């Protein structure tokens, strides 16, 4: 329950105080009216006594009366005796609550309950809204008291006014008048006569029986005579003499002279006198419309208190009252008001009439000085101590004596029993009446009422012990008589008396209160008394920390008959839940919602809004989405009604932006409500565009594209893919394109990449580098792709959607805050003015529909015309709820729909990536810049488009195809420096001007024309290869960048040119993504954009064609048998060709039409197989073996002979393809360069293996010698044709395959080896022993070439001679360029399988071991003799040859292994 200013004891004491009536003469009223007050109002601030009083109880014990307060009211007569509040009283209570709001600027009060921090203050609206993110910073320190509480002054004001407005009742005497003040002015002609008239008037009102109100406590009412003297007018001596006469007539304890109005008007400006009346009178001043401005309409409506209308209120009796007061719904009913309502007197009504003339509400007591204040305070004290308390004491004694003397049994009431007062009852109900009614009605002289009257007197003077005994006794009597109303009153006051007893001799009987409340409510149907009882009991329970019981009691008191009472009690119950030892936060929030609802029904919209806002603190951001929606919706409606449209818009925005779980119908209602409120907010403010909450914009997903969108294919032309918004961003692809562009820039800048180089970015998104302002080009569009999301289940209709931008012309610093220089289109978009198309043309999307929960992309375009800085700020659009389309709207409905269209904006605020580089960045969340929406507009640049003609999508591996490429300059600026780089530079070639064949430029005339340059050359038997010397510089480019040979190297505006483009299918099957990056520059230098690039990606499906494997071995024939005497003779090249094309059914057969070679050192010399004049035909899975002889090239005399390559062509058909020209030579050199690049990336495992095998041998010498010995460096080019049947047409495809023979004895293949997955290796925890030293047998075995010359058959007569000796010549050739020592061992120890198969019974005779030295490349013949014992077939290849370099140790001697067995047939004649 909310915290109160008073303590509980003070509150309960002040709820029941002695009542004093006032009767004034007209002259006395005039004197007090000078102070803008009636006499009763004049006394009100001084009615609490500051000193203690004393009385004696019936047992003559002195009782101390502390902090006593009396209540002084004007006498207002009434013929009726209401038991409930009149409509005027209800309106007064409503006004009291309405006028009491949280003060502006008050300190916040925080309740910490679990993990909730609840704020109760004037900031509660802001603090409770979810969008008020920093609300915790505004909170003050948490209270240090045991229970954190929040004050609710409106509830205290209501409670105080409620208790003061209680109608007088017959069953209790607490609010009956004990005394009457008779006030007469000293200026009267005969004051004593006026006293007599007033005394008679009081007697008539009390005893005539004409008036039921006011009610009087006892028949003999105390009359106290007050002479009022105006110091500014009257004669003081006369007043004193009159007062002396009064003392003689009424006794000095029954009269008083009150002097006042000592202050003169001239002293008003000089002295400031405090105004103690304002706090007592402000809630009763009905003309204070400042606080009522928001509630007047609400209270005036039919919903104030259960459809109570203003017609129930009687008009004021005063004729002179202003008409505004007559018609005002808050005007009080003076004729029907009870005497306990101070502002309802006639004098007060007159006061209101004079209020506008007398000044503001704060001008009370203007004629009173501080001494006058002291006189009034002294008068109250004298009246109470000398008049009122003795009068009460006397009446207590009289009542006690009467009650005791009735039976004469005892003088003490404490031992009295029910039978003492058994008689005197006068039942006024029939026997048949049910007992559930209020029961009996006692006559005034009934002893039960006398006990109750005595108990009330004791209670009023704080004699709670005696009061409790009397109440307890009366309670038993009333219950036995079934007088339920009387019994409930006795129970109520007995409980209160027990609570107020000093020292608490007995516990608080809460069950008394519960019984009283139930009786009042259910039996007597008197909700006013039940409410008073509940207010007292709840406050007492709260003081005993029984918050749960208090909350239960308050909730029980809610009903449908009074929304205001229910709202206030529900709010107090909510505070009880929050103040428990274990706070029940959700119950608090729930009951605050209920209280807010009842406040709203009662017309208390401010309080309703406050309750909903406080409840929102609990529900927000905790998953209670439906509850949040309801609260926000109510907050929005209440705020709008209270003329707080900004808060209403904010609340409705919250409903729409959260992911709602409401139904589509409910969301549609929310949206319409928001649009209506929003429309009313911006109705008069068209100068700026406010922010709209719908649809949601995913700012980080915004993409910006610079440039024209690419043209689609035109006929056979295929446009370059370039970059578009339809492509997904790939980081790997972006780095690949950046690497290609870096190569191009380096090529254009003589191999050096500029330090300020940044890769071109045509499309910016959240993954690109957006730290710098992007560069855009004037007259080229900028496309901004914005991602809209509709979070609702109802469709949205956006219209007139466009971008909002600001532009700063070049030469103006954006930081200069000069509004004239920064041009924006906000004004034109807001007011519908003409677009500023001379600066930036803004495209407008007329209609943009979003379906329920749909995410949709909108592409908005700008076309800049001037150079400068452009800032894209946000989007502007009209928002409306899209119609469902089920029914055709009527004209009226259509107009309503049109009215619900609002125009607003949303800013595109993109948060950059989080900084995470330094330690400071990691400790604090900081984000970098993202400038993708701030392009710099640069002067016009050239713009090139590229088209491809006859570009294939599928190729055979190695297939050569001719296509055409077209370059178009579509801008107004000439371009130059055209280059291209690619991820597959071996895939295409433009040819070179020196080697390009004259082929048709028109693609149509070259339908079946060969892509090769051919010559008709019939093959002659035994013909040798045709050789051509070519420089590598004619073909190879210095890097992967290729210059594009266009005429004049410049493309003028509007020009286009076509170039042939040769393509070669990749060597590996599968789908290949091949990327081209075209580079070009402007002929005008000095621009911010130095160059531009154009991307093209193509996918080529490569199918298997042929597999070529080649190997080389040294010729075993003797040198002098060679056709040409060239030192160590030739080398045999074996080429194994297999048709591996199985997937393509269309390929019938392959023809190998030519084999060419290219090398700086070797050449193909002659074809050995096939020997016939025909090419090789291979159908599916067939294989052919070709054999060629290769010889070293002729020595070249020119100085740059190293750069020359020898191309040798051996055609197998009737035409020779010139392999040294385009495209054959181009692809050969491109294949070589890609092969050279490849080993750099591969791991160098071969080096490790070779070095391991050369232990104890200097690697440099042997490595060089062996390499030169075995080096071949012969590149084979196999050219083929494939015959394909496609669509009943036969096509001839042609292609070439490359095989690089590097080393003699090692096989090479045209297929790239597939990477095999590495097998899992077991972990080894022990280190293995080092491998044994391996002698370099493989390397050194090639140093010496051996050859045996002997007759194939030899006939010998073994009959004549048993020994057959055959001469054999052993030829030794030193293949290296170093001196070699050779040891020949003829001792036969061979165990090879070949020697086992043949007869081995022969031996070498003569010298069996030879030691020779061979000079570099020397050929030496050695004559040996073999001896045979019988005929047979023998293998003569048994000599073991050891060779070593002369400068190496013996350990390196290695046996030379011969290539094949040498068989001889010995015939016996």
Task: Please summarize what this structure is.
With 1469 residues, the chain is an alpha+beta fold.
Notes on the structure:
- It is elongated and about 195 Å long.
- The strands form twelve sheets. Strands 12, 24, 26, 28, 30, 33, 38, 40, 42, 44 and 45 form an eleven-stranded antiparallel sheet that branches.
- With 1469 residues, it is of the alpha+beta class.
- Strand 44 (1271-1286) and strand 45 (1289-1303) form a beta hairpin.
- The protein is built from 34 helices and 57 strands.
What low-confidence regions span 5 or more consecutive residues with pLDDT below 50?
122-149, 286-361, 407-437, 814-820, 885-896, 999-1008, 1120-1128, 1238-1259
Structural class: alpha+beta
Distance between the termini: 140 Å
* Quaternary form: single chain
Give the count of helical stretches.
34
Write the layout of secondary structure elements.
Elements: H1 8-15, E1 19-24, H2 26-33, H3 39-43, E2 53-56, E3 62-65, E4 71-74, H4 87-99, E5 109-113, E6 116-120, H5 124-128, H6 153-164, E7 177-185, H7 191-207, E8 222-230, H8 236-250, E9 255-260, H9 278-281, H10 296-300, H11 323-327, H12 346-358, H13 370-407, H14 447-460, H15 464-480, H16 484-500, H17 510-523, H18 527-543, H19 547-556, H20 563-578, H21 585-601, H22 605-619, H23 625-641, H24 645-657, H25 664-681, E10 696-697, E11 703-706, E12 718-719, H26 731-748, E13 763-764, E14 775-777, E15 782-789, E16 796-809, E17 822-824, H27 826-831, E18 840-842, E19 845-850, E20 855-864, E21 868-881, H28 891-899, E22 902-907, H29 919-923, E23 936-938, E24 944-949, E25 954-956, E26 959-969, E27 975-982, E28 988-989, E29 1014-1016, E30 1026-1031, E31 1041-1043, E32 1050-1051, E33 1056-1064, E34 1070-1082, E35 1092-1103, E36 1106-1114, E37 1131-1139, E38 1147-1159, E39 1162-1169, E40 1176-1178, E41 1183-1192, E42 1204-1211, E43 1215-1217, H30 1224-1241, H31 1245-1253, H32 1259-1270, E44 1271-1286, E45 1289-1303, E46 1308-1309, H33 1337-1340, E47 1344-1349, ...
Parallel strand pairs: 1-4, 1-7, 7-8, 8-9, 14-23, 25-35, 48-57
Antiparallel strand pairs: 2-3, 5-6, 10-15, 11-13, 11-15, 12-24, 15-20, 16-17, 16-19, 16-21, 18-20, 21-22, 21-23, 24-26, 26-33, 26-45, 27-31, 27-32, 27-34, 28-33, 29-43, 30-42, 34-35, 36-37, 36-46, 37-41, 38-40, 38-42, 38-44, 39-41, 44-45, 47-49, 49-53, 50-52, 50-55, 51-53, 54-57, 55-56
